[in-house]
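FIELD: query
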Amino acid sequence: MLISIALTSCSIFGKLTSTTTISPNNSFILGNNEHNRFTATAKNVSKQKLEIFLQPLNGQPELVQTLLPQETAKLKVPGNMAVIIKNNSTDTINVELKVNGDTGLSMGYKN
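FIELD: result
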């Protein structure tokens, strides 16, 4: 019974892999909901730079890194903190994302 409870309680933890497309002057937001900590690796596979912010729920975003083309960022994201990937260019960009830990994360776009 204890093993069953342990496995059930860890079922929210896993891996997520995605190539995310972000349109010009738009942002992708990962984890703008209540969640546990997770790690995220983001690789800029575009020709334009992008910005990565961390934002607590109901708080202000803080720039943590600017990624040039082909650069990779590794983030340790605390619980209840969103990752915002911002495309300030006039081109569409792509980001390869790998997420480990709590994958019960909201995902969406914002202008």
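FIELD: remark
The longest strand covers residues 13-22.
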